[in-house]
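User: Please predict the structure of the protein below. I'd like the answer in structure-token form so I can feed it into my own downstream comparison script.

Assistant: Understood. Taking the following sequence of 274 residues as input:
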Amino acid sequence: MAVEQQRRELAEFLRVRRANLQPADVGLAEHGRRRTPGLRREEVAQLAGVSAAWYTYLEQARDIRPSPAVLAGIAGALQLSHSEQAYLFTLADYAAPSPADTEETGRRPLLRQLVRSLTVPAYSTNARTDVIAWNSLAAAVFGDFGTWPPGRRNLLWLTFTCPDFAAHVVDHEGYAREVVRTFRGRSRTHFDDPATVEMCDELSRSSALFARLWSERTVQYTCQDTVHAIHPEAGELTLVPVVLHDGVVPGIRTNAFLPSDEATESALSELLGH
């Protein structure tokens, strides 16, 4: 297939799949009548975690090359089957993702809907600790995950390489220790996923704190430690973690941080109102 024809086919494929979805299919509220059937471009972009302009360029068959992470986000937003996602990746000149990755991609819109429905800070991660869904309160307490590129939107990577991440957490090393030991206990990706092995090796070289915590080989299967944070607007927050495990895709978990006292509950309500 010629390059230009391939781009046009990709654009048309996206347009058709978008037209086949209704807002209710992806957990969005409908506001008034729509002039055209299906989702709007900006709605797909929002669900996929990409800019509306970037997604529009794809539907216009512009000469751009989306990354696999962007394609995976779009596939999840459009609720593509494994075969449809494989076709999408082929049109973009990438190898088709594995069935396991496709299952995860299909869960992302539901996870986004879940965390956005919560009135406490919450984020969802996969077995590699890639952050695949979060809400506004999680962004306020830990950092806006949307400001980091998808390839680096990873809990381990952010915790040990980005000073702005979890900057409001009082005991940052304690939070980092929790991230490391629950990662070791939740999956085998640090054994059998080449990208995760490479990331851990890179973190061991670049972060003395990660190297020390990783070498301790402590294991924990779920978060237990209370998180204390000081927010510049809301003040002191005391949060108790609750972990929800996905029943369909192994390794996916949602961390919700519940207020431990009335003051924290009131502060979160104030932040949510903003």
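That's the full token string. The chain has 13 helices and five strands.
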